[in-house]
Amino acid sequence: MSFTAILILSMLSSCSDVDNPIGIPPLPATIEIGTNASPEDVKEYNGFLYTSNFFTGAITRVKLSDLSTSTFVSAPTSVYNAGWGLNINPSKNWLLSIRNKPYDFNPANAIGQMGIVNAYNIETGVLERSWNLPEGCIGNAIDVDNAGNIYVSDIGPNARIVKIDVITNVVSVWADGTNFTDGGFGLGGMIFNKTNGFYYSQNKKLFFVGIDSNGAAQESIEVNTGGAEVDADGMTWAGNNTIYYNFNDVFISGAQGFTGKIVLSNTTTGIHSIYQTGLRDSSGIFFSSYANSNYLFVCESQFGYAFGIDNGNPANPFIIKVYKQ
Question: CA 191 to CA 200: how far, in whole Å?
């Protein structure tokens, strides 16, 4: 073989290694996560997919290289046995999980609620730390800023963002001023933009609340999405000033859920479009660059069956839908 041929083969091999350094084929369009797994949220980290079970509080882990499934955290025996938002704190090696008491989405029944946040070792599943959320707080979404502090959106009647300082363990209400409307549903989805603030959804609108130089919340500002409603449950930051979110059709019969997309031209202006339709009770969503490919992982919780909105029984096994970008 000539030197030129060897050089070309070497270059092709190098390009292949860059595209997929570990030789893993593309993921399938659906990933099975188990019978009655009822996923509320989903996250990917270091080749593993994690899903929270809304009705049992267990956390399932899927090894993406072979799609094998295991129980990462067993269903708890405490009253906080409803699994909600998940996220990763890489600086602490934690998988963060919101745990609430069972909740029927009736704001009047939020009295006496007080969710918790658990931090599990991402390698072993061992519980390393736990924090109580404020009284009446029903934790929904959870994210982490660049300093490793934890933020939780409250979906209960008190619309607010709660901050957990991981150094001092102080839990405080971080944002609850302008544009935080109390009395009905609080905040839906919430995500950190990886630089200077959070986007959150309430009253079918999208808002931005920045972080000032002292770490305090700035005034919340409504985002101009061209008149499009943004009624978000799960939200994910996809880089390139792009947000994907799920509309959860849990109170509408049939598969009426969808994934929306917002491309921001500046902090408070964006173009809205519909990315996927026909989802059944779509809750959590996560953007991942697993194996050097871009994927969206989308939960179909099928909560409508449990709440009597849909007739019959949910389809089993439950799945996570996968959209390659």
Answer: 7
